[in-house]
Automatic annotation (TrEMBL):
Transmembrane spans: none
GO MF annotations in UniProt: oxidoreductase activity; zinc ion binding
Species: Leucobacter weissii
Family the entry assigns: Belongs to the zinc-containing alcohol dehydrogenase family.
Keyword set, alphabetical order: Metal-binding, Oxidoreductase, Zinc
Keyword Cytoplasm part of the UniProt annotation: no
Domain Alcohol dehydrogenase-like N-terminal: start-end pairs: 34-153
Protein name: Alcohol dehydrogenase catalytic domain-containing protein
Domain of life from the UniProt record: Bacteria
Signal peptide: none
Domain Alcohol dehydrogenase-like C-terminal: from-to ranges: 194-322
Named cofactor requirement(s): Zn(2+)
SUPFAM superfamilies: GroES-like, NAD(P)-binding Rossmann-fold domains
Length: 374
């Protein structure tokens, strides 16, 4: 292993997930870089909807009670799967030229050899796992991650804070790529939150016209700044009529449902025309009844979308973040210190009063700070 002149300490400060609404700030063993991995001094970490799900409803993905079949992790875990950092060490088989670089990481761990990996669907890898989901992640001072899950961003001029946005951007890229080329299409997007805002930007950058629906005026204003063609404010009273009015005269045959809310999915299924493609992005928390006869007779296509393909989606995402460098504070205006993760991020998010589209955490910060631009 190659290490910089700054030796890695034996322990580090980290947020440790023990179970439902139980995150503790503890001193834990510092990680090391395994074969094919980089060891990072953590820069910035994004707080994701799945982090909220684990905190409020879990453990769901975190292997706290049952060992993960591929990572072997069992017990309390350090979350954090959207992150950036500085490479301070490399594992066996990795060039020491990585040392000192600033990287964005998507944290995807896949074998590269199974059928899905060989056909370019590494998110469906038979042994897939995620850093910060199924093994210790970045909500600590150091984190190890596969070199294939990292892209150096020094020459792109991205700050650590901006680089931490590349993983959620890659999720949005994958959601859109599930339907192929969207250039010239008009798309209805329901939900302008943690992924929806990135979707509005991705759709616009890839040549689509995004009509964005949400119940929050502030989120819709951000979607407009990110390029939304039109926005629709709904309040639950007569949403279908409002959306139908907003798309009148437009040839909308592609729908992205990013809320995971059952009535919203019902609305999308009801208003979508013959031949529509519907991408179910937001995760439903209970089984949903669907009229398959109508789906068949109207030739609608319902598409699932999960995670990201690190070899394809992540490079596109890094490029898209770099195109807007210096202007991402509208999405992530503040960065929290580690000990404010629960009080200022997860609890407000669980109560529907998140302070921003994306909340960032700097594990080494002593106090709240403004996000930095490249």
């Amino acid at each position: 292993m190659t290490i910089t002149t700054d030796a890695v300490p034996d322990t580090m400060r980290a947020a440790v997930y023990h179970g439902n609404r139980d995150i503790r700030f503890e001193t834990v063993p510092a990680p090391s870089a395994g074969p094919g991995e980089l060891l990072l001094r953590t820069g910035t970490v994004g707080v994701c909807g799945s982090d909220l799900g684990e905190f409020a409803h879990g453990p769901l993905q975190h292997p706290v009670e049952v060992a993960h079949p591929h990572t072997g992790h069992l017990g309390p875990i350090v979350p954090g799967h959207e992150f950036s950092g500085t490479v301070i060490a490399v594992g066996d088989g990795v060039s020491d030229e990585w040392v000192g670089k600033t990287v964005a990481s998507c944290g995807s761990v896949c074998c590269g050899e199974c059928g899905p990996c060989r056909r370019g669907e590494s998110n469906l890898c038979t042994t897939y796992s995620g850093v910060g989901l199924h093994r210790n992640g970045a909500l600590g001072e150091y984190v190890s991650t596969p070199v294939e899950a990292c892209i150096a961003v020094d020459e792109l001029g991205l700050s650590m804070d901006e680089a931490a946005l590349c993983q959620p951007m890659a999720i949005a890229v994958h959601n859109v790529r599930r339907v192929g080329d969207v250039n010239g299409e008009t798309v209805l997007l329901t939900g302008a939150g943690g992924i929806g805002a990135f979707l509005a930007y991705v759709l616009t950058q890839l040549g689509a016209k995004a009509i964005v629906v949400d119940r929050d005026e502030r989120r819709l204003a951000i979607a407009e700044e990110l390029g939304a063609y039109r926005t629709v404010l709904v309040d639950g009273a007569d949403d279908r009529a409002r959306i139908r009015q907003a798309v009148e005269g437009e040839d909308v045959r592609l729908f992205l449902e990013a809320t995971g809310v059952r009535p919203v999915l019902d609305t999308v299924l009801a208003i979508s025309p013959k031949g529509a493609r519907i991408v179910a992005i937001g995760i439903q928390h209970a089984p949903v009844e669907i009229d398959l006869a109508a789906l068949t007779l109207m030739e609608k296509t319902l598409i699932g979308s999960n995670a990201l393909v690190r070899e394809v989606d992540f490079p596109i995402a890094v490029d898209l973040v770099a195109r807007r460098r210096g202007r991402w504070s509208i999405v992530a205006p503040r960065v929290l210190p580690l000990d404010r993760l629960v009080s200022d991020a997860l609890v407000p998010m669980s109560e529907g009063r998140a302070s921003a589209i994306k909340i960032l955490v700097d594990p080494s910060a002593a106090e709240i700070r403004d996000s930095e631009t490249g």
